[in-house]
Amino acid sequence: MPQAQxxxxxxxxxxxxxxxxxxxxxxxxxxxxxxxRAAGGDRDAALWQAMAEAGWTAILLPEELGGAGLTLAExxxxxxxxxxxxxxxxxxxxxxxxxxxxxxxxxxRERDRLAAGLVDGSLAxxxxxxxxxxxxxxxxxxxxxxxxxTGTKRHVDLALSASDFLVxxxxxxGVGLFAVRAGGPGMSVETAAGVDGAVIxxxxxxxxxxxxxxxxxxxxxxxxxxxxxxxxxRVALAAELAGIAxxxxxxxxxxxxxxxxxxxxxxxxxxxxxxLVDMWTDAxxxxxxxxxxxxxxALGDDRAGRMAVLAAKARAGDAAVSVCRRAxxxxxxxxxxxxxxxxxxxxxxxxxxxxxxxxxxxxLQFVNLERAA
Amino acid sequence: xxxxxxWNALSDAAFRDAFRxxxxxxxxxxxxxxRKQRPLFDEVAVWYHALAEEGWLAPVWPVEHGxxxxxxxxxxxxxxxxxxxxxxxxxxxxxxxVGPLLLEHGTEEQKAYYMPRVLxxxxxxxxxxxxxxxxxxxxxxRTSAVRDGDxxxxxxxxxxxxxxxxxxxxxxxxxxxxxxxxxxxxxxxLLIDMTTPGVTVRPIANLRGETDFCxxxxxxxxxxxxxxxxxxxxxxxxxxxxxxxxxxxxxATTRPEIAIERLEKLAQAKGAFSDPxxxxxxxxxxxxxxxxxxxxxxxxxxLREGGELGADVSMLKxxxxxxxxxxxxxxxxxxxxxxxYFDDIxxxxxxxxxxxxxxxxxxxxxFGGSNEIQRNILAKAVLKLPG
Lengths: 373, 387
Ligand SMILES: Cc1cc2nc3c(=O)[nH]c(=O)nc-3n(C[C@H](O)[C@H](O)[C@H](O)COP(=O)(O)OP(=O)(O)OC[C@H]3O[C@@H](n4cnc5c(N)ncnc54)[C@H](O)[C@@H]3O)c2cc1C
Hints:
Shape of chain B: globular
Distance between the termini of chain A: 38 Å
CATH class of the largest domain in chain B: Mainly Alpha
Radius of gyration of chain B: 22 Å
Largest sheet of chain B: 4 strands, mixed
Distance between the termini of chain B: 54 Å
CATH class of the largest domain in chain A: Mainly Alpha
Number of strands of chain A: 11
Oligomer: heterodimer
Number of helices of chain A: 11
Bound molecules: flavin-adenine dinucleotide
């Protein structure tokens, strides 16, 4: 069934894929999602710890920072397999985006503390880069030599269990990335229920004082700071979405083969067969788009790489949401229940599709980039 | 109860005004435009009893049974105003289904006993048709009713029974005998008091996190033979004949109207109407809705002129349920990163329940005869396709 077909001469990717499946059997995704949702939490700590021990929280963290220093190919295999298993932790943001942000920072004790915590799972890093309207985060230098941060960040994963927020803020000359410890004076966190079971935070900083070491890196603009990390996170999201789409097709094929109405499995009706074929095709296209992003990025042409990433995230997001919608429908009323897993797939797909750009927007960016040439 | 009045003699405008006066006078503000799609009886009891007192609870029941005796044309206005004024859904199986069922097939005793109790709210009804093994293929149902003297002994299970957890009566399709050739034969409509020993109800949470529907289990439940509606073994035809002109409402514009109102609200808040790309996508939905109105009118006209609906009315149900889905999907697209939330989103000009409606829109394409079943009906009964 659909799967990202990456070159794997040594068979290492296949092994990696198997090890995610093994972990998933110890920590079934749907049960984890339900427990997290019931508790109003934002992560499954035991599951995250197990992923850290397996090395999957720092796949894209360079070796000199203690990470695995692997490539997007490995990240895609892990993310796709997590998507299939509905393991719904914020890997693309807290692991991938954080790893790539830290990779941009020059050596410092603070950077190394964060990296080490990401690797062994002892710290929960929460990137916070989306400003609330009219509350853009700013950093002002203070007489004592540190900074004072004021502003509001939205859509923050791990807002409740974060040990450290990675906060972008405007400075006099560009944009800085600050490591802000959770729970300090001047910080308040509000949460709302996310569609995929985890709460999502809004983080308010009001003259929140941080030491000078908190500034771990800076860039002339937000785009320059975030472009590469966001591209990596989008590829990881696309892979997760492709995994969700693929698994949702399989679940629906099984269900419609087993569900008998009018004396036959409903999968024997031609209209349902055609629907399943279309869903499978969409999942296959999503997987192909993800592979294309990995391979194009590896070739090093910046513009071509950016376009491939936009295409993959858009394709996989659309595929996952629309496959899951049709999957729910083909489950009949069963699909409309909370107890059936297919609804959780739809919800997770919707949430990830809306993270770091929805397809409509990504497609426009693709065309703008292409036509700007 | 207010004095009976010939509502049909009023002009449409006067009738609308009368409805509006009623809503303004008797519907508590907090019950208007409720977020909950399927409130429980107690949550809307004030409104239910107010309608009963004013004589507005049962629009199509004949006047002698405490109804308004509305013509289909006036009934359509009633339904339209209900939605437009934001009246909450009431548990309406008694009014909408049991009443017509008894009027058509019930004995005089049954009418006299049950109908006033629907009006008073003493009996709250639910519909027990679907079973775990019988959804689209309803005729395969297996809940059995075995005759034992003056009683039937019922065993089996119903599922997806909307509001069973706040109902005390269920009208169920049960199997009273087995005919290998014609499965529709041997089915009987039975009215069952849910407080009878052996009835168990288990609510089922839905995708929206609410519990609107339930499983209902029957374990040696004894039901008097007098609770059969129509003839024994003829329940299939009895049940089928109930929805006459009301089938048009499966195709009503209400759901997409609610959805597009939310889309517009969010678009306004985000200034999206000045984005040509959004405007063009919005225009498609807006005209789909507009044209649904035209198609609906085509069928409404048949009813206004005293005609009967054909199988072709199913086209409305397919179109409106799928349009409802497309609009809620568009709202999530417009919501951008806010589409990650299960909770309602803050649009600056109030809350928009984008995810709630998106998830809700999955259901109408399934219930009331799934859209595939509707297409099968159209293919066979209207286009007369072979096979
Ligand atoms: C919100 C909600 C409320 C409900 N309330 C009630 C209630 O109060 N009382 C009650 O009795 N029932 C109720 N139902 C049940 C409803 O009537 C059934 O869900 C419906 O009949 C479909 O049956 P099913 O769910 O078993 O799906 P299935 O029949 O198993 O269908 C599964 C899928 O297969 C498709 N399919 C089935 N047969 C064919 C075919 N021949 N050709 C092509 N495609 C086909 C369907 O369209 C669907 O997509 C409710 C359902 C919902 C969702």
